[in-house]
Design a protein that fits this description.
By secondary structure, this protein is an alpha/beta fold. Helix content is 40%, strand content 14%.
C-alpha cells in the first residue's frame, strides 16, 4: 500500500514515475476515511485541495526535491491560508462539533466564525515550496496544553496499537496519523515533550529541535520561550529530510538563529565508533516500568557493539524540572491566551450586557479546564507580591538545569534516556489528577529548560504490544549528531 511508504521510498517511486502524487494522496485519504472514525487523529480533512495540488505537481512531473508530492498532516496550530485552524479549542472553532465534523465529511469549510488564517506559517510555506502536500489538520490538546489530547474540543485521539490507550500529547493526532499510515509525515510542536512523548507512545520518530532552529511564525503559541517546531516521521532519515527543508533563519521570527543549517541528510550513515554516551542516573528511577528500562538498556548494549562508550552521568537539578516548567509555562500561557476574546473570530455570545461580561462569557465558554487552570496559575505567579517568589526563582532554576547539561556535554557527546517512565497510559486514568498527568513529562521537560535538541526513536515493544522509545539528547544545534546516532540505532533494528 502506497500510504505505508517512507518519504525516501515514495520519493524514489515518484522520481521513476512508478507512482503519481495523486495516487499517493488518494491512498492516504482512503486510510484516513478507514481509520480516523476509530482513532480521531484528523480533525479537518482537506482532501479536495490536496488532490488538486497533487494533480498540479504530477502535471509538472518534476520530483527533484525529496518532499515533492509527499502528503503530510499539520498539527491544528499551524496556520494555512484559508484552512480552518482552531488549536482544537472551542474559542476558535466558533461552531458546534457536529457542524465541524459534517463539514469535514463533505471536505468543506465549516460554517460560523471558525478561524481561517489569512496567511501561511513559515513551516507550511517552506514545505509547500518543496512540493509537499497538506492533507489537513491533526488533533492536539487544546492550544497544545496536555499530554494525551484529552483536552481537545474534538475529543481524544486513540493509540493505533491499543485504542484503549492515549496516543500521547499534545501532538497525539500527528503521531497516531503517522503510525496508522494516514500520511507519510506530520508536523508537531514540542514545548514540554509534545513531539517526543507521542512519538514514543505510537512507535514513530519525533525530534525536538534546538530552540531557534525552526521558525514559529504562523504557529499558535502556548509558551513562546519554550515552543519548538518539528516533525513526526516513520524513520530517522525521513526526519532529516523534513528538517533540512524547514530549518533556518526566518526574518518573520526574531527568535530563529542565524547558525548555519548543516546537511542533515549527509550526516546519516556515519559510524559512531568512539562516540561517548552518557546515562543520567536521575532518569532511571524507582517506579519506572521494568519493560521500559529493559528496552532502553538493551538499546545501550547495541550501541556499545557499534563502538560507542557508555558512562553514568548526573544531572542533579532534574528533580526540579517539572515544577520549574509548570511555573514558567503557565506564566507565558496567561500572556498568550489574552489575545483570544471572541471579537474578530471564533466563539462569541449575544447575551452579554457589557464588554467585561462579554469577555468573561466568551472566555469561560470557549476555553477548556486545562487552559483555564494554566491561565490562573500563570496570572497568580506573575502577580505583584508573587513574581519574585515564583517566576523569578523558576528562571534561576532553569539556568541551573541548563548548566547541568553544559557540564555533561563537556564529558559526553550525547545523553541517552527513556522518553517516558511508562508505555502509553489508559485513556481517562489521569482525568481527575492533573499533577499525575504533568509527571508523565518528567523525562521530556529538562531539555526544554536548556533549549537543547532531543529525539525519540522506537527501541522496543512491551508484552502488551505498546511501543517504547529511547531519547537521545545533544548540545544546542547538534541535531545532526542525534540523527547520526538515531540512524545507526535504526540500522541495528533491520539486521
Amino acid at each position: 500500500m502506497l500510504n505505508t511508504l517512507t518519504i525516501t521510498e515514495a520519493h524514489a517511486k515518484l522520481k521513476k514515475k512508478e507512482i503519481s502524487a495523486e495516487e499517493l494522496v488518494r491512498a492516504c485519504l482512503e486510510q484516513i476515511e478507514k481509520r480516523n472514525p476509530e482513532l480521531n487523529a484528523v480533525v479537518f480533512n482537506n482532501g479536495e485541495a490536496a488532490l488538486k495540488r497533487a494533480k498540479e505537481i504530477d502535471a509538472k512531473g518534476v520530483f527533484d526535491h525529496p518532499l515533492a508530492g509527499i502528503p503530510y498532516l499539520a498539527k491544528d496550530v499551524f496556520c494555512e491560508k484559508g484552512v480552518p485552524t482552531t488549536a482544537c479549542s472551542n474559542i476558535l472553532r466558533g461552531t458546534s462539533l457536529r457542524d465541524v465534523r459534517h463539514a469535514a465529511e463533505r471536505r468543506a469549510t465549516p460554517a460560523g466564525k471558525t478561524y481561517c488564517p489569512p496567511y501561511d506559517s513559515t513551516t507550511t510555506k517552506r514545505l509547500s515550496a518543496a512540493g509537499a502536500i497538506s492533507l489537513g489538520k491533526a488533533n492536539t490538546d487544546e492550544f497544545t496544553m496536555g499530554s494525551s489530547t484529552e483536552t481537545s474540543c474534538y475529543g481524544v485521539t486513540k493509540n493505533p496499537h491499543d485504542t484503549s490507550r492515549v496516543a500521547g500529547g499534545s501532538s497525539g493526532g500527528s503521531a497516531a496519523a503517522v503510525a496508522a499510515d494516514m500520511c507519510l509525515f506530520a508536523l508537531g510542536t514540542d514545548t514540554g515533550g509534545s513531539i517526543r512523548m507521542p512519538a514514543s507512545y505510537c512507535g514513530c520518530v519525533g525530534l525536538r529541535v534546538t530552540y531557534g532552529r525552526t521558525s514559529r511564525y504562523g504557529v499558535m503559541s502556548m509558551a513562546s520561550s519554550l515552543d519548538t517546531i518539528g516533525a513526526l516521521t516513520k524513520t530517522v532519515e525521513d526526519t532529516a529530510i523534513v528538517l533540512q527543508t524547514i530549518a533556518g533563519k526566518d526574518p518573520l521570527d526574531a527568535t530563529t538563529s542565524s547558525t548555519p543549517v548543516p546537511d542533515y541528510i549527509n550526516a546519516l550513515g556515519g559510524d559512531i565508533q568512539g562516540m561517548k554516551i552518557g546515562l543520567p542516573k536521575e532518569y532511571f528511577v524507582d517506579g519506572m516500568d521494568s519493560e521500559v528500562e529493559n528496552a532502553v538498556r538493551q538499546a545501550v548494549e547495541k550501541l556499545k557493539k557499534l563502538g560507542a562508550t557508555v558512562s553514568e552521568i548526573s544531572l542533579p537539578h532534574t528533580k526540579y524540572a517539572v515544577a520549574t516548567y509548570y511555573i514558567l509555562c503557565p506564566c507565558e500561557v496567561s500572556s498568550n491566551m489574552a489575545r483570544y476574546d471572541g471579537i474578530r473570530y471564533g466563539h462569541s455570545t449575544k447575551d452579554a450586557k457589557n464588554l467585561v461580561e462579554y469577555y468573561e462569557t466568551v472566555r469561560s465558554e470557549g476555553f477548556g479546564d486545562e487552559v483555564k487552570r494554566r491561565i490562573m496559575i500563570g496570572t497568580y505567579a506573575l502577580s505583584a507580591g508573587y513574581y519574585d517568589a515564583y517566576y523569578r526563582k523558576a528562571q534561576k532554576v532553569r539556568t541551573l538545569i541548563a548548566k547541568d547539561f553544559e557540564k555533561a556535554f563537556e564529558k559526553v557527546d550525547i545523553i541517552l534516556s527513556p522518553v517516558t517512565p511508562n508505555p502509553a497510559f489508559t485513556i481517562g486514568i489521569h482525568s481527575d489528577d492533573p499533577i499525575a498527568m504533568y509527571l508523565e513529562d518528567m523525562f521530556a521537560i529538562p531539555q526544554v529548560m536548556a533549549g537543547i535538541p532531543a529525539i525519540s526513536v522506537p527501541c522496543g515493544v512491551s508484552k502488551g504490544g505498546l511501543p517504547i522509545g529511547i531519547q537521545l539528547m545533544g548540545p544546542q544545534f547538534e541535531e545532526a549528531r542525534l540523527l547520526r546516532v538515531g540512524d545507526a540505532w535504526e540500522q541495528t533494528q533491520e539486521v
